[in-house]
C-alpha cells in the first residue's frame, strides 16, 4: 500500500516538475530541438537540474539491496548496446521531433484536458501494443516448434 | 543558431528539473525502481498480478499534476501545433520506439544519465540526435 502511495506521489511531483519547467508544453520542447532556428536551451537546464539530484539519489540506491519501504532494488544491469536500443531510440526521437511530446508531458497534458493529448496517447498506446504483439510473435516460434 | 531569449527560462527550467530529480529520487529510494514513464506505462499492456497498482498510481500522479498545480497558480496552457495526422504518427513512433529502446526521456535521459549507464547515454544521444534532425527537416527543409 505504501508503495502505491509513494508511486502516486512520485508521479505527482514528476508531473509538477514538468509543468514548472515548461516541458509539458510541446512548443517549448520543439524550441529546444530546433537548433538551427531560434534556440531555446531550457530543456538542457531541466536535464541538468534533474540529473544533479538524480546522481546523488542513485549513488545512495546503488549501495542498497532494498528500498526504504523494503522493496528490492530493481536497477537495470544490462550493458548491451544493440540495434534494438539504438533503432528504438531513433524512432522515438523522430516521433518526439514531429509533435514535441514524449510520454510524461503527454500524460500531464491529458490532465489539462487537451484533446490533442488524448489522440497522441491513444496512438502511443497503440505503438506500445504493437511492440508487445511483435515481441509475442518473435518469441512464439521457439515455444511452438512441437 | 540564435538563442531565443524571449522563451528561454533558465530558472524555471532548473527548478522544474530539480523537482523531476526529486521525483526520480523518491521513486528509486522508496520503491527501488527506475522512474521510466514509457516502461511504467508499457508494463500495463502486459499486466502481471501484483504489478499493476503502483504503475496505475504513478500514471495517475502524472495526470493529476495539473490539478495539484492549479491549487497554487493558473496552469500554463500547452501549445500543441501538430495536426491530428502528425500526432497519430508521432504517437505510434514514440510508443513503439520507447519500448524497443527500453526507455524515454525519463528512464534513459534523467535516470540513466544519473546512473552513468552507457546504454542510456547511447539511447539519449540517439533520440536527441533524431529529434534535432527531425525538427530540422520539418522546419527548415520542408518549411512546415
Structure notes:
The complex is a heterodimer of chains A (146) and B (144). By secondary structure, chain A is mostly helical. In chain A, helix 1 packs across helix 5. Chain A is built from 6 helices and 1 strand; from the N terminus they run H-H-E-H-H-H-H. The mean pLDDT of chain A is 95. Chain A has one domain (2-143). Chain A has helices spanning 2-21, 26-33, 42-62, 83-99, 103-111, 115-143, and one strand spanning 38-39. The longest helix of chain A is centred in the C-terminal third of the chain and has 29 residues, at 115-143. Chain A starts with a helix and ends with a helix. With 144 residues, chain B is mainly α. Chain B has one domain. Chain B has 6 helices and 1 strand. Chain B is globular, with a radius of gyration of 17 Å. The relative contact order of chain B is 0.10. Chains A and B meet through helix 1, helix 2, strand 1, helix 3 and helix 4 of A and strand 1, helix 1, helix 2, helix 3 and helix 4 of B.
Topology diagram in text:
The complex is a heterodimer of chains A (146) and B (144).
Chain A: H1 2-21, H2 26-33, E1 38-39, H3 42-62, H4 83-99, H5 103-111, H6 115-143
Helix pairs in contact in A: 1-5, 5-6
Chain B: E1 2-3, H1 10-31, H2 37-42, H3 53-72, H4 84-100, H5 105-114, H6 118-141
Give the structure's gist in a few sentences.
Chain A is mainly alpha-helical. Chain A has helices spanning 2-21, 26-33, 42-62, 83-99, 103-111, 115-143; one strand at 38-39.
Quickly list its features:
heterodimer; A: 146 residues; mainly alpha; 71% helix; B: 144 residues; 1% strand
Summing up helix and strand content along with how strands pair, one would put the structural category of chain B as mainly alpha
Number of helices, counting only DSSP H or I runs of 4 residues or more of chain A: 6
Major interchain interface with per-chain residue totals: A-B, 118 and 111 residues
Q: Quick one: biggest sheet of chain A?
A: none
The helicity of chain B comes to 55-70%
Give the helix tally of chain B.
6
Q: Level of helix content of chain A?
A: over 70%
Low-confidence stretches of chain B: none
- Please provide the ordered H/E string of secondary-structure elements of chain B: EHHHHHH
Q: Could you describe the largest sheet of chain B, including whether it forms a barrel? A: none
The radius of gyration over CA of chain B amounts to 17 Å
**Span between N and C termini of chain A?**
43 Å
Strand content of chain B: under 5%
| H and E order of chain A | HHEHHHH
The radius of gyration of chain A is 19 Å
Number of discrete domains of chain B: 1
Amino acid at each position: 500500500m505504501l508503495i502505491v502511495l509513494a508511486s502516486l506521489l512520485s508521479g505527482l511531483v514528476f508531473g509538477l516538475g514538468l509543468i514548472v519547467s515548461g516541458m509539458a508544453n510541446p512548443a517549448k520542447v520543439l524550441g529546444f530541438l530546433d537548433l538551427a532556428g531560434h534556440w531555446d536551451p531550457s530543456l538542457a537546464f531541466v536535464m541538468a537540474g534533474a540529473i544533479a539530484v538524480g546522481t546523488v539519489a542513485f549513488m545512495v540506491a546503488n549501495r542498497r539491496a532494498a528500498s526504504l519501504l523494503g522493496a528490492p532494488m530493481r536497477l537495470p544491469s544490462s550493458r548491451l548496446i544493440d540495434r534494438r536500443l539504438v533503432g528504438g531510440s531513433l524512432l522515438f526521437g523522430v516521433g518526439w521531433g514531429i509533435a514535441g511530446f514524449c510520454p510524461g508531458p503527454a500524460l500531464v497534458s491529458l490532465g489539462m484536458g487537451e484533446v490533442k493529448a488524448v489522440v497522441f496517447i491513444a496512438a502511443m498506446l497503440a505503438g506500445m501494443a504493437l511492440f508487445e504483439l511483435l515481441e509475442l510473435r518473435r518469441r512464439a516460434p521457439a515455444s511452438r516448434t512441437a | 543558431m540564435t538563442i531565443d531569449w524571449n522563451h528561454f527560462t533558465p530558472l524555471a527550467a532548473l527548478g522544474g528539473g530539480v523537482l523531476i530529480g526529486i521525483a526520480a529520487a523518491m521513486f528509486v529510494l522508496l520503491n527501488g525502481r527506475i522512474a521510466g514513464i514509457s516502461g511504467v506505462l508499457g508494463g500495463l499492456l502486459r499486466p502481471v498480478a501484483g504489478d499493476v497498482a503502483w504503475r496505475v498510481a504513478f500514471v495517475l500522479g502524472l495526470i493529476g499534476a495539473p490539478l495539484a498545480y492549479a491549487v497554487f497558480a493558473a496552469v500554463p496552457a500547452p501549445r500543441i501545433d501538430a495536426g491530428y495526422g502528425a500526432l497519430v504518427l508521432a504517437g505510434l513512433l514514440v510508443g513503439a520506439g520507447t519500448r524497443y529502446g527500453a526507455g524515454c526521456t525519463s528512464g534513459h535521459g534523467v535516470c540513466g544519465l544519473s546512473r552513468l549507464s552507457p546504454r542510456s547515454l547511447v539511447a539519449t544521444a540517439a533520440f536527441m540526435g533524431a529529434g534535432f534532425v527531425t525538427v530540422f527537416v520539418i522546419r527548415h527543409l520542408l518549411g512546415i
